[in-house]
Structures are given as structure tokens and as C-alpha cells.
From TrEMBL:
Gene Ontology MF annotations: N-acylmannosamine kinase activity; UDP-N-acetylglucosamine 2-epimerase activity
One Pfam family matching this protein: ROK
InterPro entries (alphabetical): ATPase_NBD (IPR043129), ROK (IPR000600)
Record-given protein name: Glucokinase
Recorded superkingdom: Eukaryota
Length: 335
């Protein structure tokens, strides 16, 4: 193994950071995750946590920063040139944060920042559910928010201003308030945050539930799925509603983009096959019948670390493109 074959991937999420060491073959050498301190979500706090975790994992793998070919970072939000996070619903106080420069200054190695949903879909294309012959697919990343990415004819689609945000597609006119300031966004009905808020609202309204024994602040999506599996009717209702909106949204995506596969990733996608069955039933209920679309709705197979692997895929693609460009320029000079 040589230094150019080793990359670090950093996945910045709404609740914590994941860091991993990945080879150019997509193999995961090591990884770790740490949640944010409740009062530390500011850019420098997140950068400090990510850098500390990176140093820790390098020590664990007996590597140094010099052994890394590059470092890839995935982050939610609208991304501007130079790795600047213009805005992110997961981090309301962030505005035009120069994340790439902050990280580069801290580690002294090349850093590439990309949208976390784009990273996740590239991981599926490289080593996951869309590896091989799949050319057209979309991915929904279901976590604190809802990320969305598109691959068409094998290429990632970013849009004219790099602001494709399917998680903020309106699914309910004058619906729930979303963190992005719109109303009725898909994210406001299907994210982990949305499930938590819905459960809390039902409890405040006096609905009976086994969740009532918990402090409101302790209720999260994982707990809701756990109690739903144990038969709690309120939790089952909250989950069924989210699945119905996801199925509905998948129909809309299919009419617009005609994908071969819709891949679901993120923490909620780890809820189990039962949830996927509900989403597929909702899709079948809402889709047309005269010309059925054989789209598959599948769980991401790159795993819980798809964000890490995807950032490495971005770095690797940039390195390979640069190498190809250098060869082309050399050939032109030789001629």
C-alpha cells in the first residue's frame, strides 16, 4: 500500500461527525463517530471536533497526515465555490462558512468539501446498490434533515447553481414549517427531526403512548421506531405518516426523472425492512397504473458510512481527473 492509496473521509451531520480511513478500492480501514456537545455547533467547534477525531483515528491506524493523499469532507447545505457553506438547515447560524479553508488551515493537507447527499450517492455508485450497470438513480438521505442527489447517465447532476434540494420539495401546500423557512417541505414530514417533533406534539395534545415516560428532550427517531415495533399506536401512526409522504414523493421523483433505482440512506434507513415495506406500499398506492414504472426502492448498501466513502470517491475522482489532464497536456506538448 502506498500513500496515494489512502484517503480520509469526514462526514459532518446534523448531530455529530463521522471520520474514516478508506483505501482507493473503497475498503474501510477504520472509523469513529462522535456527537456534538449540545452547545457547540458553531463552525470552529465542528472543525475542532473533526480535526481531533482525524488525529485520533490516524493514531489508531498508525498513519500520519503525510500518508493521506487527500481528505474529503461531506456537509449538509448549499455549497458555494471553494467549499463555502452558504446555508444549512442543520446549522441555522451558519452563513457563508469557509469550511474547506478552515479545515485546510488546521490539517495542512488538501481538503475537498462536497454536499453530504452528493457524497452518499457517489458511494452507492462506487461500491453500493448502484454499482455496475445502473446509470440513472436518485438518493434520499434520511437523517436530521433530508438530503437529495441525482445521477443521470452515470453523472452526478448538480444544477445551474449547485442548489438541488429535493428534501425541500413542497409536498403539502401551507404545510408544516420547515427549518429552511418554507412550509410543507418533504423534510418537515420525513426527517428524524420531523418524526421527533410529531411525536412530541401528539404527547402534548394528550395522546396515550409508552413515550410519555420519557422526558420530551430524550425522544428521538430511534426511540419512536423501537416503541412502534413494540406496538405503540402513536409511534406507529407517526411512522406510517412519514412513510406515506416518502412514497408520495418517490412517485413525483419518478415522473420527473425516471430513475432505475431510488436509494434511501441515513439513520432512518437503518430502521429495518418493515419501514421500507410501508414506503413501497405508499409508492404503489400513489403511482399510476396505466404505465407502471418498475422502479426499485432500496436501502443503501454502502452502509452507514456511505458519507465517508462518498467523500473519498469525490477526492479520488478529482485526483484521477487531474492525472488524466496532465497526461493529455503532456501528449499535446509532445506533439
Amino acid at each position: 500500500m502506498t500513500a496515494v492509496d489512502i484517503f480520509a473521509g469526514v462526514d459532518i451531520g446534523g448531530t455529530g461527525v463521522k471520520v474514516g480511513i478508506v483505501t482507493s478500492k473503497g475498503s474501510d480501514m477504520a472509523r469513529e463517530k462522535e456527537n456534538y456537545h449540545p452547545d457547540k455547533h458553531e463552525p470552529q467547534d465542528v472543525v475542532d471536533l473533526a480535526v481531533t477525531m482525524l488525529h485520533n483515528i490516524l493514531q489508531t491506524t498508525r498513519l500520519s497526515l503525510k500518508d493521506l493523499d487527500a481528505i474529503g469532507v461531506g456537509c449538509p447545505g448549499v455549497l458555494k465555490a471553494g467549499g463555502v457553506i452558504h446555508a444549512a438547515t442543520s446549522f441555522p447560524s451558519w452563513t457563508d462558512v469557509p469550511l474547506q479553508q478552515l479545515l485546510t488551515d488546521n490539517v495542512g493537507r488538501p481538503v475537498t468539501v462536497c454536499n453530504d447527499a452528493d457524497a452518499a450517492i457517489l458511494a452507492e455508485q462506487w461500491v453500493g446498490a448502484a454499482k455496475g450497470q445502473v446509470k440513472d438513480f436518485i438518493m434520499l438521505t434520511l437523517g436530521t434533515g433530508v438530503g437529495f442527489s441525482i445521477v443521470t447517465n452515470g453523472q452526478l447532476v448538480r444544477g445551474g447553481s449547485n442548489t438541488i434540494e429535493g428534501g425541500h420539495m413542497i409536498v403539502e401546500r401551507n404545510g408544516r414549517q420547515c427549518g429552511c423557512s418554507q412550509r410543507g417541505c418533504l423534510e418537515a414530514y420525513t426527517s428524524a427531526s420531523a418524526l421527533m417533533l410529531q411525536a412530541q406534539e401528539h404527547l402534548r395534545a394528550g395522546r396515550e403512548s409508552s413515550l410519555s415516560r420519557y422526558f420530551e428532550a430524550d425522544i428521538n427517531a430511534e426511540l419512536i421506531f423501537k416503541h412502534a415495533a413494540q406496538g405503540d399506536e402513536l409511534c406507529k401512526h407517526v411512522i406510517h405518516e412519514a412513510a406515506d409522504y416518502l412514497g408520495f414523493a418517490c412517485v413525483t421523483f419518478c415522473r420527473m426523472l425516471d430513475p432505475e433505482i431510488i436509494v434511501l440512506s441515513g439513520g432512518i434507513a437503518e430502521a429495518g425492512e418493515s419501514y421500507f415495506k410501508q414506503i413501497r406500499r405508499a409508492y404503489a398506492k400513489h403511482t399510476w397504473t396505466t404505465f407502471p414504472n418498475p422502479v426499485r426502492i432500496e436501502k443503501a448498501s454502502a452502509g452507514y458510512d456511505s458519507g465517508i466513502i462518498g467523500t473519498v470517491a469525490v477526492c479520488k475522482a478529482q485526483r484521477d481527473a487531474l492525472a488524466k489532464s496532465c497526461v493529455t497536456q503532456r501528449d499535446t506538448v509532445d506533439e
